[in-house]
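pls read this stuff:
=====
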Amino acid sequence: HDIGSAVREARKLDGRNQVDFAERAGVSRSTVQRLERGDDVSVDALLSALAELGLEAIIVPRGAHVSVSTR
């Protein structure tokens, strides 16, 4: 699962189309399209999109084994 797919899946599970989501995240629809395709977007745009979905990015060393749990 790449980050673009995760954003698309979360957006759809939330019942939002790209236009509504882009507006609420403060980015353009084309940015949402690029993000969901896995193309380059700015870090600000990525973080805004994740925040709008109630998600966050966590940076870990490459190859690290990470376990995530929800509360």
